[in-house]
Amino acid sequence: MTGLRPPKGTTERLLNRAGFGPHAGVGAVLCILYKPKVARSTAGIMILKVFFAASAVAFAAATLSDGAAAQQRGDDRRIAAIVNRDAITLYDLEQRVRFMGLGARLPEGGEARQRLLNEVLRSMINERLQLQEAARERLEVTEKELQDQLAEIERRNRMERGGLAKMLRARNIDPRTFEDQIRASIAWQKVIQLKILPQIRVSDVEVAEVLKRLQQNKDKLQYRVQEIFLPVDTPAQQARVLQTAQFILAQLRAGASFEILARQFSQTGTAATGGDMGFLFEGQMEPEIERAVKPLKTGQIAGPVRGAGGYYILRVADRRTFGGRNPDVKGITVAQATLFLPENPTPAQSKAVQERLAKIAAEAKDCAGLVKSVSDAGGRGQVVDEIVPQEQRAEIRALIVPLKVNQVSRPFLELKTYSVYMRCPDNPAGKPPAEKDVREALQRQKVGAFAERFLKELRRSAYVDIRV
To answer: Is the pTM of this model over 0.70?
Structure first.
């Protein structure tokens, strides 16, 4: 549906508050591209996050000169790493670094550049292992599956067909570097669907425990935390890992996307979901993490924080009491009602739809009535909590900001639809998730944890020869 932009994390916000957020490999398993019936998909959101951030950062510092481009082509044959029988070329590695964009000037040499290459290469090695496992199971990623995902990304970004590849080439980025990430993600999802998902069981006791925890903690402040975790396996590694953490923090301070850096650098299962740990209660976090998180407001970052096993960089994506509102976000609740125009409508048809919607809006006494009436008329209706007017497009913002409770806007024409908006009363009480939703959230958590362990086993048993 066009129009309102819901707040980030709306889909699974209540489920995450139980402390069972989208952990481990779930972003690369169930919640990105592949949409099995057993899980509620986020329909490509994580892939889109990578695309949004990569297309928004400044690439000027990384633009190649003609001479550099010629050298780059020569790197097609230089090997950065061997993964079993597959090669990752230096060209592949440099293109991935370029695609990351980082939102700040990339290091040009020295230890900082080497650390960056090492971390990005680790992510690419994991992707090769995922593709190899899919090949062993004779699971293929078809060209149609790949192109469908590219088309979906373009559609969501209002780009013409082929516009994504055109945009990347204009910035001297090989579109294949993005396609390779998508292909590995789809392949890995198929592996998990085949080998892990049939083993996952969620008991009634586990579901009841989550619902009980929600009730017990309804008045406590909860924090939706994102993490980038860098392990320290031996004392000798501590200084090097700390330097890497400080380098990542500097990129974040310069405006880099937390989600992208979490995907590329974090060495825990939440990396696949941009570091999203879900909602955590006070007393549920490690003491060092809790001390760092509690003073933060939404969007703020802390780190490096030395915790058990390594260093953390932390970001508070949201905070609230259960069912309540975020004290850092001034949001409102808005209903949207939409009627659709026929293909190639005449002026008379367009006017008839507009008048019909205006009549529905005039007769609606509240948001629930508006949504029901437009649905009965064959249109679509929705109520969206915590709409932040400043995040809406200017034309939508102009419609909703002046509204009082139960007041409706004029009809608005957009993309062959007419929509009206109604301001709803704030609803701080909230509702707990249904048992079905909790069960699916637990399943996603378990799938992610299994996927993470499985990938580690593949890495341990693989022949990996790093040459850079």
So the answer is: no
